[in-house]
């Protein structure tokens, strides 16, 4: 497998001084389903917008299919498709009209154009709704139409910025199926950003954990989880007179140094301990804590999840505030009435 | 690191035909949108219609009164007022095109267009041409409404109170002036919309401008009937010149500003509007280039 996207030391500092991307490097292989997992403000959108030629960057190198982002932007535009975080379809036009327009802008010819439109409507299960205005579609349908318009010109790479943010869980799971279908059946390379753990876990062959403009680690979800080593024991404590955060820190220091543990991290109001065969170390662990007057209120033993991976590499939990913060009332404003037929 | 050689053609075609094609596709979208939301088109005509048909009636006696009718070039007030309403509609509707642009910015539609290899300027051109089309439709509807509103049913049968001095050529030339006026506003809108990037402000700015521009021009009354200070303002208000030109093209020399030749009235308007259009379009284009850079 060869790299279809190569990014070297990419830096983006906004005019106001915000260092959104601080020297990241990564490759995406052809045919790969690659993901950026990170909280709001991590620099995901900024990175995507630079690669797809929407935004200038400060320094570094970006190659897409060997084309240099610095001076071959139009060649890159020819081989990429993009579905923005806010759905970029025209609500006044029908599904079919949206697709036709996109194809015409790529100078597709009549028969090929019509064939491709039918093909994509079929692939995205929109054939029956093709003649309705996109404004009357459900959230999931609009997103699918958005994907389809981005695919009209048969791009080699599809960029998806938080494709399921704002969708309800059912529509989200539904969309995953379409994305997998595209990756497998169309051999499309997909670059996706998300702040949903399960989404990254389910879809991505490989993912980069990004936080504060830096890539903390890259790997397949499976390897990342294995790297944690063994199981995760999550602990919460009873009050013993000391403030809870101090208790947690004390416990973390104790456990990180304990011979049976591979490591320990703080989270919200508890401590995560990583250990091989977690079940067998629990008695020892509790004894050690009680010797230091730390009383366990709650203990759970799980195999590692991406949450744990994220915590381990960033030192904090991913905050799931996305859906609310990112939800812009895109139909607000003047005259954006919802039409139903 | 190696990269696969592209199998897709990477050459986006170039040349004037390509430019025209892309502009056409985006223009067609703009027009399609217009007719998909006819409500907006009608809605933007309600206020002008009320002005034309009701306001026009209120002033009818004044225009006909003995001392006055000369100032009004012997026209009915409806006829006198119709060109003003045409421009008012264009002014008022101007805000909407700005709103459309902001909508595209907010919705991600523009972003998506910008990731395609089309020429950036076709996006702006398609929109401006779409706006022009809407303005022309509105202007023609106002002209027809005024004409119909001017029909009187008297004892001696049906009588037309509005007659067009130069016939169809005059009407077409008047529409041309309206178009030029629209171009000034199209540029202005793009500039405002891309500067504020906010629907509310854009709407307010265009709304706020319409009435003062109308009242400080020759829209409601001939300039000589305005108070002195308003005469001064109206003499630098481009709306005055556009309206004067529309009136002479529709109704002939009798309504020309005193001592002015018809051709001069028209040329002054064309010159003034062209300069203004060049300015607003340059600013609008610059803003647009900045946004899509
Ligand atoms: N146009 C901008 N000007 C200044 N700062 C920006 C701009 N866009 C984004 N940022 C900042 O850059 C950082 C990364 O933003 P972004 O790439 O949108 O993150 P994400 O997509 O991961 O949520 C954030 O701190 C954000 O506030
Ligand atoms: Mg983002």
Topology:
The complex is a heterodimer of chains A (341) and B (293).
Chain A: E1 3-13, E2 19-29, E3 33-37, H1 44-51, E4 59-64, E5 67-68, H2 73-79, E6 80-83, H3 95-105, H4 110-123, H5 139-151, E7 157-161, H6 169-185, E8 189-194, H7 197-203, E9 206-211, E10 214-219, H8 221-228, E11 231-237, H9 244-257, E12 263-267, E13 270-275, H10 278-291, E14 296-302, H11 306-314, H12 322-326
Parallel strand pairs in A: 3-8, 3-9, 6-7, 7-8
Antiparallel strand pairs in A: 1-2, 1-4, 4-5, 9-10, 11-13, 11-14, 12-13
Chain B: H1 16-36, H2 38-58, H3 60-64, H4 77-107, H5 109-114, H6 120-149, E1 151-154, E2 157-160, H7 167-196, H8 199-215, H9 228-236, H10 238-251, H11 262-292
Antiparallel strand pairs in B: 1-2
Helix pairs in contact in B: 1-6, 2-4, 2-6, 4-6, 4-7, 4-8, 4-10, 6-7, 7-8, 7-10, 7-11, 10-11
The structure holds adenosine-5'-diphosphate (ADP) and magnesium ion.
Task: Using a beta-carbon cutoff below 8 angstroms, give the protein chain pair with the largest interface and the number of residues from each chain.
Answer: A-B, 52 and 45 residues
Total number of domains of chain B: 1
End-to-end Cα distance of chain B, whole Å, is 30 Å
Annotation field: number of helices of chain B: 11
Instruction: Please outline the major beta sheet of chain B.
Output: 2 strands, antiparallel
Structural class computed from helices and strand pairing of chain B: mainly alpha
Catalogue the ligands: adenosine-5'-diphosphate, magnesium ion
Approximate strand percentage of chain A? 25-35%
Low-confidence stretches of chain A: 321-341
Low-confidence parts of chain B, pLDDT < 50 over ≥5 residues? Answer: 1-9
Topology pattern of chain A, helix = H, strand = E: EEEHEEHEHHHEHEHEEHEHEEHEHH
């Amino acid at each position: 497998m060869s790299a279809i996207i190569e990014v070297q030391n990419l830096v983006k500092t906004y005019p106001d001084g915000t260092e959104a991307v601080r020297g990241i490097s990564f490759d995406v292989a052809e045919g790969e389903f690659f993901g950026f997992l990170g909280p709001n403000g991590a620099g995901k959108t900024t990175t995507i917008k630079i690669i797809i030629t929407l935004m200038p960057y400060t320094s570094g190198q970006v190659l897409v299919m060997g084309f240099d982002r610095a001076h071959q932007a139009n060649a890159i535009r020819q081989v990429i498709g993009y579905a923005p975080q806010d759905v970029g379809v025209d609500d006044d036009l029908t599904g079919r009209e949206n697709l036709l327009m996109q194809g015409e802008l790529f100078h597709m010819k009549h028969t090929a154009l019509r064939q491709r439109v039918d093909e994509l409507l079929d692939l995205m299960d929109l054939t029956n709704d093709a003649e309705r205005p996109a404004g009357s579609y459900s959230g999931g349908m609009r997103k699918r139409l958005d994907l389809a318009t981005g695919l009209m010109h048969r791009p080699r790479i599809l960029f998806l910025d938080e494709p399921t943010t704002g969708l309800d869980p059912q529509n989200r799971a539904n969309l995953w199926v379409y994305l997998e279908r595209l990756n497998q059946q169309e051999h499309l390379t997909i670059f996706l950003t998300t702040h949903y753990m399960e989404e990254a876990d389910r879809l991505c062959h490989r993912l980069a954990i990004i936080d504060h403009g830096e890539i903390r680690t890259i790997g397949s979800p499976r390897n990342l989880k294995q790297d944690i080593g063994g199981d995760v024991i999550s602990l919460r404590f009873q009050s013993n007179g000391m403030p809870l955060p101090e208790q947690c820190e004390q416990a973390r220091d104790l456990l990180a140094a304990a011979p049976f543990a591979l490591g320990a991290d703080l989270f919200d109001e508890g401590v995560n301990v990583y250990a091989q065969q977690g079940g067998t170390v629990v008695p020892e662990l509790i004894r050690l804590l009680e010797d230091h007057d730390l009383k366990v209120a709650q203990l759970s033993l799980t195999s590692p999840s991406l949450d744990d991976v994220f915590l381990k590499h960033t030192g904090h939990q991913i905050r799931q505030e996305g859906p609310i913060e990112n939800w812009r009332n895109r139909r607000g404003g003047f005259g954006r009435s919802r039409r139903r037929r | 690191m190696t990269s696969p050689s592209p199998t897709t053609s990477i050459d986006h075609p170039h040349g004037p035909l390509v430019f025209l094609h892309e502009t056409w596709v985006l223009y067609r979208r703009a027009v399609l949108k217009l007719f998909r939301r006819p409500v907006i088109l009608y809605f933007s005509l309600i206020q002008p219609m009320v002005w034309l048909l009701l306001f026009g009636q209120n002033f009818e006696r004044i225009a006909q009164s003995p001392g006055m009718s000369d100032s009004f070039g012997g026209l009915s007030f409806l006829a006198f007022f119709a060109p003003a309403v045409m421009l008012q509609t264009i002014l008022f509707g101007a805000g909407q095109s700005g709103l459309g642009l902001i909508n595209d910015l907010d919705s991600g539609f523009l972003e998506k267009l910008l990731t395609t290899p089309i020429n950036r300027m076709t996006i702006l051109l398609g929109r401006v041409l779409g706006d022009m089309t809407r303005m022309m439709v509105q202007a023609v509807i106002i002209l027809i409404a005024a004409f119909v509103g001017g029909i009187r049913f008297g004892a001696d049968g049906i009588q037309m109170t509005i007659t067009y001095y130069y016939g169809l050529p005059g009407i077409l030339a008047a529409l041309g002036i309206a178009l030029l006026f629209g171009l000034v506003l199209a540029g202005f809108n793009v500039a405002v919309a891309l500067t504020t990037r906010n629907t509310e402000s854009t709407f307010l700015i265009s709304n706020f401008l319409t009435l003062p521009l109308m009242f400080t021009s020759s829209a409601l009354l001939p300039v000589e009937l305005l108070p002195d200070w308003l005469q001064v303002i109206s003499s630098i208000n481009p709306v005055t010149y556009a309206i004067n030109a529309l009136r002479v093209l529709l109704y002939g020399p009798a309504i020309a500003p005193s001592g002015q030749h018809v051709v001069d009235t028209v040329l002054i308007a064309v010159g003034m509007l062209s300069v203004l259009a060049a300015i607003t379009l340059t600013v609008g284009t610059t803003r647009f280039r900045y946004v899509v850079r």
